[in-house]
Amino acid sequence: MKPLKFNALLKSTLWGGEKIIPFKNLDVKQENVGESWEISGVKNNETIVSDGPYAGKKLNEVVAELKGKKRNAEIVLPRQIVMYLCRNMTDTPLKSIGALLGGKDHASISHGVKKIEQDMKTDEALNNTINIIRKKINPI
Hints:
two-stranded antiparallel sheet, two-stranded antiparallel ribbon, 13% strand, alpha+beta, single chain
């Protein structure tokens, strides 16, 4: 699974201008662009996934699927990646991660984390994807 890409929302503002458009190399005719929302779950301002299996879905829809009970591969792997990243990049207990992911128990979270750790040893693409996500979350 590749990282999700979103279509940014360009917001016209009183203080806006035209500098964001060339800076981001955009081909738009919108005026007074003062803000570019790269990813947003704000009601009526959700960003849309631009490619991959979630193309055309709003951020909130993708989050709801990841928190849901579906077990197909398109959902399970991203959910396990979230489990792994939460466990390895925060001090959040397994039970709390499970609550955030739709009420999963600590054993499910532990299994997901271990599965990703094992798969990363042999799957270079998965390893690269997780490293890209880590750097986007914490670029330092």
